[in-house]
Design a protein that fits this description.
Strand order of the largest sheet: 1-2
Number of strands: 2
Largest sheet: 2 strands, antiparallel
Structural class: alpha+beta
Low-confidence stretches: none
Number of helices: 3
Mean pLDDT: 84
Radius of gyration: 16 Å
Helix content: 40-55%
Distance between the termini: 17 Å
Strand content: 15-25%
Length: 98
Amino acid sequence: LFSDGPFRLAAMLRRKVVFMAGVYRGGRDYDLRFIELADFTGLAAMNGPERDAAVRAALERYVATLESLCREAPYNWFNFFDFWADAEATPTDAAATT
């Protein structure tokens, strides 16, 4: 359950989307990661279905990137939203059950 809102906004504004994370390695060591997820700068000529497909592809790259980093460093992440809540529950419902 990931929102595509940030990607739709970037598509509307015809901007690039870059994922950034600092992966803690212990002590005072971090690996900074910058990964381009989407480049919507050329979207002016795209119609609705093409734009929707580009947004969907960007969202899928985001989820795959996040999944990869979580597998690489599973204890580096904090989750403030219950992604694994009942699919029928709204975010408010999910918060009320935790």
